[in-house]
């Protein structure tokens, strides 16, 4: 069986960044609170752009508490502290933090604001960093504090004041994203954005989302892990040149020359002056990523901060022809690498001694050998047995375990290529699976197929089809506690809004949007099951239909583990869909594979038995 390529520098590590220093660090923060005449401080897992992946110098929540998840909020008062996390992290958080000092609160039980309202005392003052909270976020904090009889106050970040050895801000180079992949010039994009501003009655836009900055100006960077972003801002007036505010070391003459016709590049330190030029001007500030500090500086200059949606977010979500062609090419290349990995995995697991880390390293190496790999799109989730039941499990050298016979192995991974971003999950049987495993897997697969085959009217939201994926599990009294799908970018974030397939997915799906299709089932302490493909929203012609309809094209190409499928639980239509999908996988990938892997793929994609 084909082996992965020789050792090479990794895009991910297996060190455990968590710690058990919560008591001393919380006490240091409390000392800073006393010096600042405050009674508490809010520490969100966020940078000043509300990014999912943040640079090392913005990992304040992890430094303070030891919790390394991608979402969460700590509230530290003088006599108590809480870490509020969502359903993805209810198992992980208690293992990482000192629960004798920090109470882990599931979001399903209480929000950060509700905890503040219940625990802040009358006349107490809660501090927050105005660069780490949106206007709406601050309004929620204010309401919670007032409910408790207290108040809130913006202050310089107190964690920074006590964080010895805090890393320096990133300064990676910013590069031009080729028009062949972008599919549209910067001038064309900015014209569309200015038209949207005019329709909204705004004179200018502050671009605070680095993803939107990257899309609008056809640039990419390396400031955060796994997403090619350059952290910075832009001011786009309805008339006149745009101004980009980027850390000076990131900018070279080539970038300045490329953007010179449409934009001036200034230092990040010049942003305050830029915001101070808005006297008498109505400025759109993104409600999702715009820090309340931006609003305050605009208003202090005599301008009006119009808090609302950045129009770029919706434009970016709808991929153009070049981006769609690129993502198809990326998924074909990625599919061949995943097929090589799965073939290798079968052999390695059977031989015994395969560890979770070894699987991660092998998959990354297969992708690197496949060509054009720029990064992984997120840290690979490689969970054997009970670790697979931890939805966002991240293997470390401390948690690494060997895949054992009779277990399930869940691997959720993705890659960044210059022409597209991938994200795929497969669950594999090692040895003989139990009937319960096969039942649960098949029910998850039925929900996955229901989304893939869905046909729905134009204007339908992700919330309206989320139940399609859950129905086969509901019929057995089962469910899963995460959304069914998230949006995906084009050589950008693997988690891109505003589209999603979830109970919270209120944005209408449009042709050109890319989403994940990933229902799951998790048996805590035993195993996890998740099946994920990426899908593209496309028009769907219905003979005799009266309304414009949409459906999905499945982009991901990799076989499902037939050993885990119970054909008797499938309808004839579901069996036919699986067989047709497997035939497509085989026909597309076989020419890219060596003879031995093609032989494995032939077996893995054989038609299901009746």
TrEMBL record:
UniProt-listed InterPro entries: Creatin/AminoP/Spt16_N, Creatinase/aminopeptidase-like, Creatinase_N, Pept_M24, Pept_M24B, Peptidase_M24_C, X-Pro_aminopeptidase_P
Keywords of this entry: Aminopeptidase, Hydrolase, Metal-binding, Protease
Domain named Peptidase M24 C-terminal: residues: 548-608
Annotated SUPFAM superfamilies: Creatinase/aminopeptidase (SSF55920), Creatinase/prolidase N-terminal domain (SSF53092)
EC number: 3.4.11.-
Domain Peptidase M24: 327-538
Domain Creatinase N-terminal: residue ranges: 25-161
Keyword NADP (UniProt): no
A Pfam family recorded for this sequence: Creatinase_N_2
Major enzyme class: hydrolase
GO molecular function: aminopeptidase activity
Protein family according to the UniProt entry: Belongs to the peptidase M24B family.
Protein name, entry field: Aminopeptidase P family protein
Source organism of the structure: Methylobacterium brachiatum
């Amino acid at each position: 069986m084909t082996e992965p390529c020789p050792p090479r520098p990794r895009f991910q590590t297996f060190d455990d960044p968590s710690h058990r220093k919560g008591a001393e660090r919380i006490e240091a923060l409390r000392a800073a609170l006393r010096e600042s005449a405050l009674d508490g401080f809010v520490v969100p897992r966020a940078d000043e752009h509300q990014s999912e992946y943040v640079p090392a110098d913005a990992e304040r929540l992890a430094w303070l508490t030891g919790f390394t998840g991608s979402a969460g909020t700590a509230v530290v008062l003088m006599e108590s502290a809480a870490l509020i996390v969502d359903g993805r992290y209810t198992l992980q958080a208690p293992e990482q933090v000192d629960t004798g000092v920090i109470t882990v609160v599931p979001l399903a039980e209480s929000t950060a604001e509700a905890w503040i309202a219940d625990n802040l005392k009358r006349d107490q003052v809660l501090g927050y960093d105005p660069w780490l909270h949106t206007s709406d976020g601050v309004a929620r904090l204010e309401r919670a504090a007032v409910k408790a009889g207290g108040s809130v106050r913006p202050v310089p970040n107190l964690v920074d004041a006590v964080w010895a050895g805090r890393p320096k801000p990133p300064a990676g180079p910013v590069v031009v994203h080729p028009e062949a992949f972008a599919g549209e010039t910067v001038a064309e994009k900015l014209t569309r954005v200015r038209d949207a501003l005019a329709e909204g009655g705004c004179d200018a836009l502050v671009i605070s989302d680095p993803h939107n900055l990257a899309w609008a100006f056809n640039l990419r960077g390396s400031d955060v892990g796994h997403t090619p972003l350059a952290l910075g801002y832009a001011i786009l007036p309805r008339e006149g040149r745009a101004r980009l505010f980027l850390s000076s070391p990131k900018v070279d003459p080539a970038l300045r020359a490329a953007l010179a016709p449409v934009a001036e590049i200034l230092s990040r330190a010049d942003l305050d002056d830029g915001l101070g030029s808005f006297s008498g001007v109505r400025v759109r500030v993104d409600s999702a990523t715009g820090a309340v500090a931006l609003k305050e500086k605009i208003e202090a200059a005599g301008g009006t901060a119009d808090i609302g949606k950045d129009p770029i977010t919706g434009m970016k979500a709808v991929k153009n022809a070049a981006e769609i062609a690129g993502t198809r090419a990326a998924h074909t290349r990625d599919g061949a690498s995943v097929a090589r990995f799965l073939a290798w995995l079968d052999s390695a697991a059977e031989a015994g001694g395969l560890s979770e880390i070894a699987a991660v390293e092998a998959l990354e190496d297969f992708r690197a050998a496949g060509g054009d790999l720029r990064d992984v799109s997120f840290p690979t989730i490689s969970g054997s047995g009970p670790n697979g039941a931890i939805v966002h499990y991240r293997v470390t050298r401390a948690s690494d375990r060997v895949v054992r016979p009779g277990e399930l192995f869940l691997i959720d991974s993705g890659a960044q290529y210059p022409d597209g971003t991938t994200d795929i999950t497969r669950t594999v049987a090692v040895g003989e699976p139990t009937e319960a495993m096969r039942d649960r897997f098949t029910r998850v697969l039925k929900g996955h197929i229901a989304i893939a085959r869905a046909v729905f009217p134009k204007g339908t939201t992700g919330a309206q089809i989320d139940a399609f994926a859950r129905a086969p599990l509901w019929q057995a009294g089962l469910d899963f506690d995460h959304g069914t799908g998230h949006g995906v970018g084009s050589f950008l974030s693997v988690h891109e809004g505003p589209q999603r397939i979830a109970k919270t997915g209120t944005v209408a799906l449009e042709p050109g949007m890319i989403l994940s299709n990933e229902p799951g089932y998790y048996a805590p302490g035993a195993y996890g099951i998740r099946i994920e493909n990426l899908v593209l929203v496309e028009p769907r012609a219905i003979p005799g239909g009266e309304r414009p309809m949409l459906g999905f094209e499945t982009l991901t190409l990799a076989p499902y583990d037939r050993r885990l499928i119970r054909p008797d639980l499938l309808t004839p239509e579901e069996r036919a869909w699986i067989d047709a999908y497997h035939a497509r996988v085989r026909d597309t990938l076989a020419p890219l594979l060596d003879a031995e892997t093609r032989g494995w793929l032939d077996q893995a994609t054989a038609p299901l038995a009746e």
